[in-house]
Amino acid sequence: MTDVKGMLIAGEWRSGGRSSPNVNPSDTNEIIGHYAQGDADDMRDAIEAACAAQPRWGETTPQARHDILAQAGNEILNRSDELGELLAREEGKTRREAVAETRRAGQIFLYFAGEALRISGEKLASLRPGVEVDVTREPVGVVGIITPWNYPMAIPAWKVAPALCYGNAVVMKPAELVPGSAWMLADILQRAGLPDGVFNLVMGAGSIVGAAMLEDPRIDAISFTGSQATGARVAAACAKHMRRVQLEMGGKNPLVVLDDADIDQAIDCAIDGAFFSTGQRCTASSRLIVTESVHSRFVEGCLERMRGLKVGHALDNDTTIGPVVDQQQLANNLRYIETARGEGGSIRGGGERVECGRPGFYMTPALVTDTSPQMTINREEVFGPVASVMRVRDYEEALYVANDTQFGLCAGICTTSLKYASHFRRSVRAGMVMVNLPTAGVDYHVPFGGTKASSMGPREQGRHAAEFYTVLKTAYVEP
After folding, report:
1. Would you say 428 and 403 are in contact if contact means Cβ atoms under 8 Å apart?
2. Is 78 exposed, middle or buried (0-12, 13-18, 19+ CB in 10 A)?
3. 244-248 sheet: strands from edge to edge
4. Is 26 in a helix, a strand, or coil?
5. Cα–Cα nearest to 371, from 379, 363, 381, 362
6. In sequence order, which ranges of 79-210 are alpha helices (DSSP H)?
7. What digits encode the pLDDT tens for the residues 343-364?
8. What are the tens digits of pLDDT across the range 161-183?
């Protein structure tokens, strides 16, 4: 019989009524494992377990929470090669990228282990004589966490670790394409000593188990990372129940390259930001905005660098670009490329499906030139190794084009001018700004999030995570 890895509910592994194969996008002949698929009853049971476990967990000492989170973080770090290989096999990013992501997940758990010892409050003087005022932070309660497939270890870590740090119980629904990383995280947390029911993992379709989470009034808060369309449904469901919500919904991130930029540095930033991790990250540099005098040099330099990128199996040592995650994403990427061509864009390099010796979802990174701000390729998030180039006259036009989007997650600029760098930092409408760096790549101890349609609710990561995972209580005392 097929060994099925189950869901974790109330401290027990549950196989569920059916299972689904976890297919390797680098080699679709390889089935990584079979994972349980839950239903609405499983989700309701998980929420019930979390409700029962949260009060006692919320009263545990900071030291107890620290020790459990630290043990989980250290195990992730110690097993980063093993966990990274699993991640690469099920998501498709290269081994090097997958191991780095796994190590980042371990670092996040260690960071919040420390934060558990630093939960602070305030003592204020009252306007009334002899009265004391205390402001303290308390857990929100039961937190529903919905995670995407593109960072199957790091994103769950930066949601789960702070939720547990501040005394909440968690019900997590991972993306269907990457159950293996989620299962390993659940196993590590359970063996780290979490009490039964404090962390629950329910795998399955968003239309079934995700919907059951959204509909359940016992969930006190939901943190979601995914598409804009799904995020809107999450927000609407949370408004119905008057619960707090945190949404991260992608971006259409600009990288501005000015006349005075170090062109080699700008090319490095563009290639890294646009194509590494197969372009499957919300901070990818998908819109390259380049001033006229350096446009040709920049494009030719990018094309030269792209010719040196090796598309291949995620675990091959010489691979720099792995496969996209599945057939649907591959078809979506190719459709956007054809739409760009039909709207007048020039496909200067890549954008083709390729064979790499094993059946998988491989394509060459694409660079589309001769594009304008109103073209579909510059309005909608592709979420693949596809970058468009827009030619502009000067800095002022570049800034205008950079801001001409419904998204506002991250923005970058390549320039040697302190004047333009400083003005861009102040004026671009984005939650994160990079100067002479790729747009992708944010440290784990700083706030992550955007503006406009990219984000909703408090920031993720670092000490700012407390704003979402805790509630403030003001207490007056007359001794």
Report:
1. yes
2. exposed
3. 12-14, 7-9, 199-201, 169-173, 142-146, 221-225, 244-248, 455-456
4. coil
5. 379
6. 80-91, 95-115, 154-165, 179-191
7. 999 999 999 999 999 999 999 9
8. 999 999 999 999 999 999 999 99
At 296 the three-state DSSP class reads: helix
The amino acid at 416:
T
Enter the tokens of residue 359. Answer: 């059946």
Task: Report the alpha-carbon distance of residue 389 to residue 69 in Å, rounded.
Answer: 44
Question: Rounded to 10 degrees, what is the CA torsion of 294, 297, 300, 305?
Answer: -100
Q: Do the Cβ atoms of 55 and 169 come closer than 8 Å?
A: no
Contact partners, residue 219, CB within 8 Å, separation at least 6: 47, 142, 143, 144, 171, 213, 241, 243
What's phi and psi for 450, nearest 5 deg? -130, -165
Under DSSP, is residue 24 helix (H, G, I), strand (E, B) or coil? strand
* Dist CA 425 CA 86 (whole Å): 38
How close are the terminal C-alpha atoms of the chain, in Å? Answer: 67
Given a contact cutoff of 8 angstroms between Cβ atoms, the answer to whether 153 and 189 are in contact is no
Q: So which residues are the catalytic ones?
A: 248, 282
Instruction: Count the neighbouring beta carbons within 10 Å of the beta carbon of residue 313.
Output: 24
CB distance 36 to 6 below 8 Å: yes
Residue 429: strand pairing partners: none
CA distance 157 to 76: 10
* Structural domains of the chain sorted by starting position, each given as residue range(s) with its CATH number in brackets: 4-249+454-477 (3.40.605.10), 253-435 (3.40.309.10)
For residue 83, how many C-alpha atoms fall within 13 Å in the half-sphere facing its CB? 29
* 90 phi/psi in degrees, rounded to 5: -95, -20
At 276, phi and psi to the nearest 5?
A: -65, 155
In angstroms, rounded to a whole number, what is the distance separating the alpha carbons of residues 307 and 259?
A: 25
Max CA-CA distance within the chain? 79
pLDDT tens across 113-134, in order? Answer: 999 999 999 999 999 999 999 9
